[in-house]
Amino acid sequence: MFLDPLRLSPDGDLPGPVLTEVTALYASNHAFHALSGDFPDPYDIRPEQVAAELARELADPHTEVLLARDRGLLVGIAVTLAVHPDPADPDPWIGLLMVDASLHGQGHGRRLAGLVEDRLRSAGRTAVRLAVLEDNTRGLAFWTALGYTEIARRRDRDLGRPCRVLRKPLTAPEQTPDPA
Length: 180
Description:
By secondary structure, this protein is α+β, with helices and mostly antiparallel strands. It has five helices and seven strands.
């Protein structure tokens, strides 16, 4: 798996084939979108809605949208925020990590999270935060299994939804001893 930063065209648009892939990925995650309320109808997510959401994300110069590809196929997406709007918050954030629903349970989410953590670690960051919607028990189980711990409960900045804020220190990756 590798991460491919999403870039808009000079006109500010997503290339058509990429928009089609990302829309299919978003549309596959009905249950998450029913919880989040990010789209009016979680069973009818349209390309123009996804394009508007990604353009909104990318309008922040501290945001990066990363496409996760495995064997040429889009398997997931991650949205990171290098600088949180609250100046008292020193950590970068994972704003979204989503894997195509048809691929859940195959380790893609764990690998994608690890690649995002590695990327932040290599940029000199020492910890990462994220928020899990209060009702998202599957998401909470996923993140806590990866070593994230709850540090706060509050409402999200955009829609006021109740969330758990999780944090994970980014220690150096474990080194495998050289057999020589």
